[in-house]
Amino acid sequence: MRGSTTRQVTMLALVDPDQLIPADHPIRDVKPIVEAALKELEPVFAGMYSEVGRRSIPPEHLLKACLLMAFYSIRSERQFCERLRYDLLFKWFLGLNVEDDAFDHSSFANRQRLLKHNVSRAFFDAVLGQARRLRLLSSEHFMVDGTLLESWACFKSLQRRPNLDGQRKAEEGPRGRPGGGGRNPVADFRGTKRSNETHYSTTDPDARLARKGNGREA
Fold first, then answer.
1. pLDDT at residue number 169
2. How confident is the model at residue 44 (pLDDT cuts 50, 70, 90)?
3. Is 176 inside a domain boundary?
4. Which three-class secondary structure state does DSSP give residue 85?
C-alpha cells in the first residue's frame, strides 16, 4: 500500500543455559562428579598436547561428549555434533557458551591419543573414585546393560555338569522334539531345573545364567 512502512523489530535476550536446565534433572548430579574427575586428570592432559601447532579440541570435551552419546543413545559422532549445534543442555554439560560453534565430528579422531595415554581408563577410575567417596556405590548388587554383553551361548547349548551326585542320564540335556523348521530340534526344558551350579554351555563355558529381576526368566 502506498505510504505504508514496514518495521522489523529485533528482540535481544540474555540466556543462561544453567537457568534452562531443570533443577531436578539427573544430569545435574552427574556433572560435578565428572568435573571433579577431570580436575584430577589435568596433569595428564597437560602432558598430552604440545604448546605449538594448531589448537585442538580439549580432551575434556571429548570425554564429556562420549558420556552424552552413551546417556542419550546417540549412534554416531556426526549425529552428536549436529545436535550440539542447537542443544543447550549439551553445551551446558560441555562448558560451552551458547554462541560457541559445535566442533566437527572429525575431532573424535583424537580419541586414539586418549587411548594411547590410557586416559579413558584413568577417567573411568576417577569417576568411580568420586562415586565411592559420595557413597553412591553398593557392594550388594550391580546393574549392567544386557545389550553390552556378548555370549556365544543359548539355552540349547546348556548341558548338565557331569558327576552331580548320580543325576540321571536322561536329565543331562534338553529333550529334543521335531519341528522348528531348522537343523536343530526344538529344545524342551520343561520340568528341568537349571542353574550355574548344575548346567554349563558347551559353546561358551564362561557364559552364565542371570535374571533381570526377581521372578523374571533367566
1. 46
2. confident
3. yes
4. coil
Same domain, 124 and 49: yes
Whether 70 shows a pLDDT value over 60: the answer reads: yes
**pLDDT mean over 70-91:** 92
What integer pLDDT is reported at residue 27 of this predicted model? Answer: 92
For residues 66, 72, 76 and 79, what is the CA-based torsion angle, rounded to 10 degrees?
A: -110
Task: Assess if residue 210 is contained within a domain.
Answer: no
CA 147 remoteness from chain centre:
10
Which residues pair with residue 177 across a beta bridge?
Answer: 186
Number of domains observed in the structure of the chain: 2
What is the 8-class DSSP label of residue 158? E
Q: Tell whether 84 and 156 lie within a shared domain.
A: no
- Three-state DSSP state, 162: coil
Query: Looking at per-residue confidence, does 56 or 211 come out higher?
Result: 211
Q: Which has the higher per-residue pLDDT, 167 or 23?
A: 23
Domain with 94 in it: 17-133
For residue 215, pLDDT beyond 70: yes
Contact yes or no for 60/38 (Cβ under 8 A): yes
Residues 23, 121: one domain?
A: yes
In a domain, 48, yes or no: yes
DSSP 3: T
**107 and 54 housed in the same domain:** yes
E strands along 118-211, which residues? 158-160, 175-177, 186-188, 199-201
CB 25 within 8 Å of CB 71 = no
